[in-house]
Automatic annotation (TrEMBL):
Residues 17-297 form the Luciferase-like domain. This is LLM class flavin-dependent oxidoreductase. GO terms for molecular function: oxidoreductase activity, acting on paired donors, with incorporation or reduction of molecular oxygen. Pfam families: Bac_luciferase. To bacterial alkanal monooxygenase alpha and beta chains. InterPro entries: Bact_Lucif_Oxidored, CmoO-like, Luciferase-like_dom, Luciferase-like_sf. One of its GO terms (cellular component) is cytosol.
Length: 335
């Protein structure tokens, strides 16, 4: 099967390393990905997590655009609930003017951190407006500011997000449901299904079909994948990757890396009654050829033309090797 490969990077900090080292590895990995023919290099947004350095992906994206020349650089994604849609539009119009045709604006709905970090990020917001604007309204407002501005009857009519780049950033919505897929379709955005967070096969198929039916094209598919020289080495390095879904009495649900993080999320949210569900995220792990065979099968089943790979291993050398092996295994598929 013929498909493109892209990468999603959280700038993981291995034990004994620091954020400066993690960012240097991100730079080197993006440059290597460009040499190997990857399509995109995306940067995740996480807050208050000492194992992830990537709390400001738009800043890191600017640096990577200056350190590369061809590969698309973007966010996977900006957590829009925390920010002014107008300011996000300005930021990415600046990036698109600095590197025309190479910028991706990926938007996500999750908080990307614990409740106190969300409150800290939103502390300067108008609380009335922040409450009134749901995610779809925020996304529509962002889309309008990326183009000609909001409608004449909007409270912010006349506000213009500058500059005006030669080419707007590609707009991508990250989601894990048919509803998110249809929202992306309604706004004319590309959609990437977050298979690394919701790997339910039925939901994947329904979401992909919803987007394809509405737009006539396939979404991107993000997933965990890791390649090593041997199957056993890959399994050992990935280990028993787990996540925990915490659900509050309000109905809010988030995925967190540990039971301790789940309990802390509930505490910061002021909830003593909450549910946790242990999950084992699906990881495609093995040799490069084994991973390629699994991607081939997914591409054939769902018509996927581009995968966004999240490598769930912090070790710098192992991550670099995986990027090489995945690229090498992809070459026969393109022949």
């Amino acid at each position: 099967m013929s498909y493109l490969l892209s990468l999603l990077d959280k700038s993981l900090i291995p034990e004994g390393a620091d954020a400066a080292q993690a960012f240097q590895h991100t730079i080197a990995l993006a440059q290597r990905a460009e040499r190997l023919g990857y399509r995109r290099y995306w940067l995740a947004e996480h807050h208050g997590n000492r194992t992830y350095a990537g709390s400001a992906p738009e800043v890191l994206a600017s640096h990577l655009l200056a350190k590369t020349s061809r590969i698309r650089i973007g966010t996977g994604g900006v957590m829009l609930q925390h920010y002014s849609p107008f300011k996000v539009a300005e930021t990415f119009k600046v990036l698109a003017s600095l590197a025309p045709g190479r910028v991706d604006l990926g938007i996500g709905k999750a908080p990307g951190g614990l409740p106190l970090t969300s409150k800290a990020l939103q502390s300067l917001h108008d609380p009335v407006k922040a409450k009134a604007l749901d995610f779809e309204a925020r996304l529509r407002e962002l889309d309008a500011f990326l183009h000609d501005g909001v409608a004449a009857d909007h409270a912010l009519a006349g506000a213009v997000a500058t500059p005006f780049p030669p080419q707007l950033p590609q707009r991508v919505l990250l989601g894990g449901s048919p509803e998110s897929a249809l929202l992306a379709a309604r706004l004319g955005w590309q959609f990437v299904y977050a298979g690394h967070f919701n790997g339910d096969p039925v939901n994947i198929e329904q979401s992909i079909d919803a987007y394809r039916t509405a737009t006539g094209r396939a979404p991107l598919l993000a997933l965990f994948a890791f390649a090593a020289e041997t199957h056993d080495e890959a399994a050992q390095l990935v280990g028993a990757l787990r996540s925990f879904r915490v659900t509050l009495p309000t109905g809010q649900s988030v995925n967190l890396p540990s039971l301790e993080a789940a309990a802390e999320f509930a505490r910061q949210a002021g909830a003593s009654d909450y549910r946790t569900e242990a999950r084992r995220p699906h990881v495609i792990a093995g040799t490069g050829d084994e991973v390629r065979e699994a991607l081939d099968a997914l591409s054939a089943r769902h018509g996927i033309e581009e995968f966004v790979i999240d490598i769930p291993v912090a070790n710098f050398a192992a991550r670099a090797t995986a990027v090489e092996l995945l690229a090498q295994a992809r070459e026969p598929a393109l022949a």
